[in-house]
Amino acid sequence: MTKVARWLTKLAVFATLLWLLFPARGENPLPNCLYGKYTQGNEETAVEPCGPDTKGIGADTDVQAVMRTFEIPPNMVAFQACPGGRFLAMPNVNDDGHFLVRYPSHVQQNYLAPIVHELAHVVQMRDAGNLAALDPKNNSRRIELGADFLAGLAFNIALRRLNGDDFETNLQLAGSYKVVADDHGPPEHRGQAFRRGLTRMDPYPNLTIVEAMRYWNANDYARIRR
What we know:
Blueprint (H helix, E strand, L loop, with lengths): L2 H19 L39 H9 L7 E6 L5 E4 L7 E6 L7 H17 L2 H4 L1 H23 L5 H9 L1 H4 L3 H4 L2 H13 L9 H12 L6
Parallel strand pairs: 1-3
Antiparallel strand pairs: 2-3
Helix pairs in contact: 2-3, 2-5, 3-5, 3-6, 5-9, 5-10, 6-9
């Protein structure tokens, strides 16, 4: 084999590895934490179905306080533990008007921040009417930063006894979501969105959660540094 042929062979192998490791965006089954489908496993790894709320997250008093703040009825959301999964929210296709919030079954601690973020997605989906109306493919960053903003509001209203810095850090951890910045925004933008909700400056104290979310979308989202 000539030197050129060997070089071309190495290039082809490298290109194949890139294709396998970094598939095209449209082929990614989990583009962000707000999605209508959930895929686990592949040809080599069997699918492990999600199961009951083994961590008792739905019974957690802080989670319940956030749901009250978000005006989400307690029976509207079912929490599910997923082996090998991650945090995400979706409509419950088997129960119209209800939602699923899923979390990795191996989670040991620091689950509150991403759970609040997912509950914020429930607020967004309820207001929009359904997931499709949110148009997550074209509005992912606005939706994700909006959820971080709502998480800040929830912290201000329902979780003040906790450490805000720790909460924000946990919200930003890349390992919590396993997504790229194009979906959720870079950490500094997520921090700005969270702190805007956390400070709850005018006019937010006089607005309902849904009104606050709409005001954020119309005004404060544009102020996040691009």
